[in-house]
Amino acid sequence: MPRRKILPDAKVLEAALALMHARGPEALTFAALAEASGLSPATLVQRWGSKAALKQAALLLAWDQLDERTVGLANAVPRTPDGAIALLVGLSGNYGDIERYAEGLLVLREDLRDPALRARGAAWRDALATALTGCFTGERDAPADIGLLLIAQWQGSLLWWSFDPRGRIERHVEQSLQRFVAALLSR
Predict the structure, then answer these.
(1) DSSP characters for 121-186?
(2) What does the DSSP 8-state code read for residue 26?
């Protein structure tokens, strides 16, 4: 007779994500997750089979959550250039301080190593670019690929902020994107 699940997979995977973000991806072990979740290591092995499968499942959950957050923000902002900036500023709030941002880069490394996770990242990029481009439909001077250009500027502004993390990351991103959009639309 199979045992009842005491903790749903999603809650366990959230605990796995929290471990990876707090102590790096290498800290995710069945023993560490057992301690964090209250489940036995054997139960975790039974559910996921290997550390690689556990890590992938946790990161796929993170992509699902990012997809949901992106759709929610995209639906909440006006379809204007300022709305596009607000969408990216809203997505920047998850990064937090420099330590959290740096740990996030270690987690991103895991996404880049796994073809399935890379595919999720590419799909998210495409969906985000489409949402951003939709914010410029009334702007005749906007390049056709404005969404991808904004994403590149956004990611660059995050990276450059990390080298000199003064002030809130959201403010830095907002100012950077405002200057970028103004330059693009005033050609």
Answers:
(1) HHHHHHHHHHHHHHTTTT-TTS-TTHHHHHHHHHHHHHHHHHHS--S-HHHHHHHHHHHHHHHHHT
(2) G
Q: What is the pTM of this model?
A: 0.90
Q: Which pLDDT value is given to residue 1?
A: 43
Give pLDDT tens digits for 90-149.
Answer: 999 877 788 888 888 989 999 999 999 999 999 999 999 999 999 999 888 899 999 999
Contact 90, 74 (CB under 8 A): no
Distance CA 84, CA 78 (A): 8
Specify the pLDDT at position 186.
Answer: 82
CATH entry, 9-185, from 3.40.50.300, 1.10.357.10, 1.10.3720.10, 3.40.140.10? 1.10.357.10
Chain centre to alpha carbon of residue 126:
14
Domain ranges of the chain: 9-185
- The C-alpha atoms of residue 95 and residue 56 are separated, in whole angstroms, by 21
